[in-house]
Automatic annotation (TrEMBL):
Highest taxon listed in the record's lineage: Bacteria
Regions crossing the membrane: none
Name by which UniProt lists this protein: Sugar phosphate nucleotidyltransferase
Pfam families reported for this sequence: NTP_transferase (PF00483)
Positions of the Nucleotidyl transferase domain: 16-312
Amino acid sequence: MNNQDKESHQVDCVSILAGGGGTRLWPASTEQRPKQFMNIGSEKSLLLQTLERSWLLNPKVGVFVVCNRRYSEDILSEIALLPPAQASRTHVLPEPHMRNTAAALFYVNQLIEQLAGPQAINLIQTSDHLIGPPTVFCRTVGRAAELARSRRIVVFGLEPDYPATGYGYIERGPALGTVSDGADEPVDSYEVLRFTEKPDLETARQFLTEGRFFWNSGMFCYPVGLFREELSRLTPSIPKALEPAGRSLDKQLEFRQQAVLLPPTPELTAAYEGCDNISVDYALMEKTDKLALLCARFEWNDIGSWDVLAKLEAGPTSGTEENPGTVVTEVGTSEGNFVRSSLPVAICNVSNLIIVEENGVLLICQKGASELVKEARARLQHKLQSEP
């Protein structure tokens, strides 16, 4: 493959994980319509932004969206907003049962390997993150694909600029070298020592000081054959359950004449029922010796809480931030409130609150405490279900 081909097709395919439980940005995000369908940072949904970003890479095989089947129609509606040439090559793979990310990725991986062979480079994205600018994103993915071709599973790490407690971290090991095609500034790459869960504030500050830890973006890329080999070696129960039912996925796609939607077969549905519920982090990432960490230079935000969204949409002043269409009036001294509401809101002498009214629910939360939203949602739902 010459340099021109590499630049025109940074990767062979892109797989987008579009599950979503609708918990962290509740009540705007719900189980019926989770965060990826929200318009954040743009007039377009996060999912549509992810689809458009994927097609900037010009993947040869196409784009695949693995999803909870309850979201199939909503995802098809978003795909319909793409140019026809892209929409016709963007395929939706609804899972018959939710079995976490290891099963989801093996499912789509098997189809891609049948279509393009074991050397095909697959980029994994989630459907609900903000990433930019586009040119930097494309260049970084191109460098990751170069590294992946040397039989590496490449994870994208971001250098932290504050002690975040809402992200997982990756500790870098010895340097692998730099990756460049000669046209851009080289990108550093490293061995991976370990993944860590979301730390407390003191640990996050220590990570920032030590300089060896990167935010885990949740994005990675790899040759599909290597992914299959490593998952089969490290967590063989997943391939053992799903491989027999997925041996002719490419023929199903061909039979449906490249239809966008590829519904699960009865065989796949039965296979999923017996499949382990385990994340790809535990099934593969924390066990394999094939990892490489690439230092991503693009901007990234997983919008993991109302506090994060409030900071993202904060204006230049300390006054109340409000979404377009929200009518807010303040009486007395009020500073730093974030309001998202379809109803007019009056604020009297309170500060640093998150106020969200959507889908028939009102959330009032102190800034800095939005990690409690998931628990508040669960408690409220239990109370509503218990009412006579």
